[in-house]
Structure formats: structure tokens, C-alpha cells
Write a structure and sequence with these properties.
Length: about 230
């Protein structure tokens, strides 16, 4: 049995989840609230609630995970700080999970979408975006995560003829999205946010595969900072 705690504060939503995986079956208890600017106040109580409901103590956790980004700079730092503090204190691994991949997994688990174009509002007229294909019930990236203006969104090469679904707040910038992309999206849902419950599943996969890290090796992924650094070289 593996016991994984996940948390996320990368968007307007705040969430926590506890996943127990045993013999290939997942049992998840979660909390999810739209709490803009209240992540600091709500995150720890949510963690306490899922542990209490499941009847486990924090000392029994096998790993801690969090939404590593991309997303709100402030929210990412809040979740990273809480997750790292717990992992250090418990002496367990910390697993950072992509918010865009978690968003795609949620679209598949709840609606069975198989080609997903995830986009989160990055402010400053830009979006964080990535495209995914579901293989063996998990999202596999068809393009690297990037921050870019919505005018530059395009389907991965060789995959523009699939029945794509757009997920995330980034698609609220619809008027700036190229006509070709608009035409290729069979459905677009802007009112969905990354959730800790989906991150817990991805973190459990990583844990099972031995893809774990020490708490101080896991850092938030901002993308915008990375792009600026690359341009400066």
C-alpha cells in the first residue's frame, strides 16, 4: 500500500487530496474550493481534514506532492512551502506534479476526453499551454509546456485532425486564438482548474516508478522565468 498526500494552490482554486493505492486500486479523499487569495488560510485545514477523514496520521505518508506549476506565482510558492515543510518534517519524498498534466488527467477521468489542449491564463495577455493524448489512461505530452500569447497557439504537428477539447482558464482569451485552432476544438471548457485529486494519481504513478526526489530538489515551474533566462543567454 502507498499513501500519497497532494495539494494545489496554483489557480483560484485550493485543493488537497489523500490517495491510498493498494493492489492497483485508488481510494481518494479530497477537498476542493474556489478561494481566491485565501490559499494560505485554507490549505492546511484541508490537509488536516482529508487525513482525519481517512483515519491516517501524517507520519504514515509515503510521499507528499504538490502542483509545481505553471500557475499563479504566489499560489505555487504557498503550496511548495507547505509541501516542502511537510516532506522535510516527515522525512519522506516530495513529488512535483504538472498542473497542466493534472488538468488533462481530470478531463479524461471525468469525461473520457482523449485529446486535450490545456491552457491556463498567465496574465499579461499570455497563456500557459500544453497538448496531451491519453495513452494507457494517462496524459502523454504532445508538445512542451510553454508560455505564449494566445495568438500563437497551434495544435502539435501531425495531430491537428483529432477531436480536440480545450480545458482551462486560458481559453477565456478565445477572441485572440487563431481561427484554425478555434475550428479544431470540438469543445472548450474554461471553468475548470487543476485539482489535487488528479495530482495525487500522477504522484502515485511517479512513486510506484521510483521517480521521487528529496524535498530540496523540487522547485516550482514558472515557465515565464525560464523563457526570460533562455532569451538572455
Amino acid at each position: 500500500m502507498s499513501l500519497i498526500l497532494a495539494m494545489d494552490a496554483s489557480s483560484s482554486a485550493c485543493s488537497a487530496a489523500l490517495l491510498r493505492r493498494q493492489d492497483g486500486d485508488d481510494d481518494i479523499i479530497s477537498r476542493f474550493e474556489l478561494t481566491p487569495r485565501e490559499h494560505t488560510r485554507r490549505l492546511m485545514p484541508m490537509i488536516d481534514e482529508v487525513l482525519a477523514e481517512a483515519g491516517f496520521k501524517a507520519s504514515e505518508l509515503d510521499a507528499v506532492s504538490y502542483g509545481r506549476g505553471p500557475g499563479s506565482f504566489t499560489g505555487l510558492r504557498i503550496a511548495a512551502g507547505v509541501a516542502q515543510g511537510l516532506a522535510y518534517g516527515l522525512g519522506c519524498p516530495l513529488i512535483g506534479v504538472s498542473t497542466l498534466q493534472a488538468l488533462a488527467l481530470g478531463g479524461f477521468l471525468r469525461h473520457q476526453y482523449r485529446y486535450l489542449f490545456t491552457a491556463l491564463d498567465a496574465r499579461m495577455n499570455e497563456v500557459y499551454a500544453a497538448a496531451w493524448h491519453i495513452r494507457e489512461n494517462r496524459p502523454v505530452a504532445l508538445m512542451e509546456e510553454a508560455v505564449l500569447p494566445p495568438e500563437r497557439l497551434q495544435f502539435p504537428k501531425g495531430h491537428d485532425d483529432h477531436d480536440w477539447v480545450g480545458l482551462g482558464s486560458g481559453w477565456s482569451l478565445w477572441d485572440a486564438v487563431p481561427a484554425q485552432v478555434q475550428a479544431g476544438l470540438g469543445l472548450c471548457l474554461t471553468d475548470v482548474d487543476p485539482a489535487a485529486a488528479d495530482m495525487a494519481v500522477l504522484a502515485a504513478d511517479a512513486f510506484d516508478a521510483g521517480d521521487i526526489q528529496r524535498p530540496h530538489d523540487v522547485q516550482p515551474v514558472y515557465l515565464r522565468d525560464q523563457v526570460a533566462w533562455k532569451k538572455a543567454r
